[in-house]
From TrEMBL:
Pfam families to which the protein is assigned, alphabetical: HTH_26
Organism annotation: Adhaeribacter aerolatus
InterPro entries listed in its UniProt record: Cro/C1-type_HTH, Lambda_DNA-bd_dom_sf
Name of the protein in its database record: Transcriptional regulator
The HTH cro/C1-type domain, residue ranges: 13-62
Superkingdom per UniProt: Bacteria
GO MF, one annotated term: DNA binding
SUPFAM superfamilies: lambda repressor-like DNA-binding domains
Length: 68
């Protein structure tokens, strides 16, 4: 799939752990881990909004399209 998840990069920029993000956005660690690994089949806009709010970033900072 040509959609890449750059959640790790945003976490490093904000010096935040996945555990801390999980607690702040009220999403389970397993669901965030699935997203971070690029294994998620879909992402709710409400989830994306919560992540962007806590990481102070734009959706395009997390999701990236690369042609194959």
């Amino acid at each position: 799939m040509p959609i890449y998840i750059n959640l790790d990069l945003q976490l490093v920029k904000k010096k935040m752990s996945l555990t801390e993000l999980s607690e702040r956005v009220d999403i389970t660690m397993s669901n965030l881990s699935i997203l971070k690994q690029g294994k998620a089949k879909a992402v709710r806009f409400s989830t994306l909004e919560a992540i962007c709010r806590e990481l102070e970033c734009q959706p395009g900072d997390i999701l990236e399209y690369k042609a194959e």
